[in-house]
Amino acid sequence: MLGFVLQRLLQALVVMLAISALVFAGVYGIGNPIDVLISPDATQAIRLATIAAYGLDQPLHIQYRDFLLRLLAGDFGRSFVFNMPVLDLILSRLPATLELTLVAVLGATAIGVPLGMYAGYRPDSIAARLVMALSVIGFSVPTFWIGLVLILTFAVSLGWLPAGGRGETAMLFGTAWSFLTLDGWSHLLLPAVNLSLFKFAMMVRLARAGTREAMLSDTVKFARAAGESDAVILRRHVLRLIAIPIVTVFGLEFGSTLAFAVVTETIFSWPGVGKLIIDSISSLDRPVMVAYLMLVAFLFICINFTVDIAYAALDPRLRVKGAA
Amino acid sequence: MNALLAVENLATHFATRNGLVKAVDGVSFHLDAGEIVGLVGESGSGKTVTGFSLLGLVDAPGRIVGGSIKLEGRELVGLPQAELRKLRGRRVAMVFQDPSATLNPVLTIETQMRLALEAHERVGAAAARDRSADLLTRVGIPDARRRLETYPHQLSGGMRQRVAIAIALLNRPSLIVCDEPTTALDVSIQAQILAQMKALAADFGTALIWISHDLATVSALASRILVMYAGRIVEEGPTGEVLRKPAHPYTQGLLDSLPSIAAPGEDLRQIPGSTPSLANLPEGCAFAPRCAFADAACKSAPATRRTATRAVRCHHPLGEVAWPL
Ligand SMILES: Nc1ncnc2c1ncn2[C@@H]1O[C@H](COP(=O)(O)OP(=O)(O)OP(=O)(O)O)[C@@H](O)[C@H]1O
Ligand SMILES: [Mg+2]
User: Is residue B228 domain-resident?
Assistant: First the structure.
């Protein structure tokens, strides 16, 4: 187990280094931030001084080396636009995205998996056909369009829910969270539904395919031969048998949503990291982009690691020999 | 007579794209309490489907289309699934061929046994553990308490099959359908499990239907043999008599292909041809195209001819038995 962890840590380090180089080069190519940094009427002297202050006169590899050295000291740099440490900036926005993502992915799983299992258990029923039709919509209709429809319907026409913002928040662990207040929930609901539709569709399909296969297996037939009811078989046997792909997709969806909830956050003006990264791209706020993308890479490494651990918990055949 | 099971004219058909597959087509037999009967036949003859029919476990596109199954006097054909479920495991259980596919790979043996118990009664965790461990011991698993905590992949194939047998016995059914439970195991373990099964069935008073394509295995166990071909029982009788004096040419063919009967060095004789497709079987005797004795009479379906202990479904039965017409 320790060897496994060490090996993964080493891999993670190499991946992070590679990512940092790629990201740095890529962001460098997007454009020169000097025009954003300096007002057009500044003198040439101020201009040169600023360029030198940010190290922008150095060649790429020197800039990269300086960046890595600062990184080792825990310094991700300062945002050009917000003029504050990038790490603080991102961390201040992360909770908003985190709670939105959690609600969306957990909701999609908690509703999608049982419905998908039912659709796999009774594939010819009307309910199963309805669920599958819903999942086709979730797959094929673009997020931004659904988001706008949601706002038009529930915020504009019906006036039931607010169209944007985080609403009232409460403090926990020194950060503000919306999910702790009722008003916060009313703000969370629409963007979470918007985000979760695609994930819901995916969970439905996974659960359905897995259940259909499992229901035909000898394992299920044997359980039925012992007199176990279908409800017990679905809950105790099938759910465990299909858990691995579901956990995998859960992890991947959690990571990618956390990193790229851009469209939904923009439509619902949800002040999370997705909106931050879009803003910093349009203002060429290089340090934010670099730090953000590296954080995303780090996030995926963590998620993959957690998923691997979850595999071992879910499937005894994958556990390390000798442990049993 | 103490009849446990009476099957009359059972027909189980599958409506497939390639036509109607009459997997079981007019099967009749009976079983006494505690009796062990062998059901033999080549692959595809309908043995497994017969077994599933007895448990009400035929899934679409299959359906029991006719006949009657009386277990302990109760008619099973047409019984609602909820009623059948209560009987499964408690009155009639089943063991399958491949023990690595039947046990759930992600649940401990204890959990799986407990689920089988809870299907029929409320039991506490401790009581369930005691009863499970007791049964594991009786089916020949040493150190049963520790085994309860293991997962199937940590056990050998033979051990897994013993666990499956223990699960089948757990609710003390009066009949267990054993669908080739030793075919996937190696020979020495096969022999052990056969002997143990025989003893257990006697202990528990459980009747067994032992399905196999291997006459030798069955002869070590069963008091009577049913020979199945293309969805029908073609011969039936006490094990010794059927083996010594087979009446159906198909049974004769099965016997000739046993290694122990051919002289050493001599080639094993095989039945020419192969099992017919069960979709759209022609009229008449299904075995006729492969039979050395077939003639014009075989173009019509033979009726079952019975003596006191034996039955055969053939126009030209072998041997000197005086078969009534
Ligand atoms: N789900 C199904 N759909 C269509 N046909 C089926 C289905 N299950 C079984 N059959 C058909 O029923 C016939 C009998 O199958 P069965 O499994 O009972 O044979 P068997 O005697 O048990 O053979 P084996 O020794 O190979 O286990 C076969 O011809 C098979 O094609
Ligand atoms: Mg079979």
Answer: yes
